[in-house]
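JOB MANIFEST
job_type = single_chain_structure
chain_count = 1
residues = 230
[input]
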Amino acid sequence: MHQGSVLLVEDDVALRRSLKTMLEALGFQVEEAWSGETALAQLRNKKAEAVLLDLNMPGMGGMAACAKLRAMEPALQILVLTVRDHEEDKIAALDAGADDYVTKPFRLPELAARLRSAVRRVRASTDDTQRMLELGPFSLDPAAHKITRHGEELHLTPKEFELLHLLMRHAGRPLSHTQLLTQVWGPEYGNEREYLRTYVSQLRRKLEEDPASPRYLTTENYVGYRFQVE
């Protein structure tokens, strides 16, 4: 089964070839690039649904490549590979236009799951902001301002609904504190993380079976939050 078309951008030849082989075995169609410059050139000639981009590369570098790829292909899904614990890299990558990140060392099943999620987002990208969302036990109707869990309506405040709608529209993707604050509260916000902590805590009490151990509305340490799709 064709899982999606991926451009793999990695300067380490051994890792690139190994990843290509493993992803192809899982059903992905994989093209290779060894620098940001070659990735941009290849995408001009052959489109991909997702890019797997190493941040630490010579030449243009992964962060600059990410920004240029986003400008060239607004609908493209960009997943960056970054070294574990470099939280500032994750935040900068999201700000540069990345859709998700995978930390090294990574497990192949996690990487494949993130890529499949990215491909699903591309294939659903024609849907507008008023479409019904059916994710796990949740059904969200933006037009009616209504959300149900297992068919039972949940009562959210307007801001809670707006925040949850944004997270569910980008399900499977991490959204930074700044992205969430500016899109829900406005461009003059960005540093008021206590707003998010309060609202996320309230949402978890209404959405989760165990708010202390959330299954759906998860924290991305030092970065933001993610609505997790199973």
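[summary]
The radius of gyration is 18 Å.
The domain at 133-227 is CATH 1.10.10.10 (Arc Repressor Mutant, subunit A).
exit_status = 0
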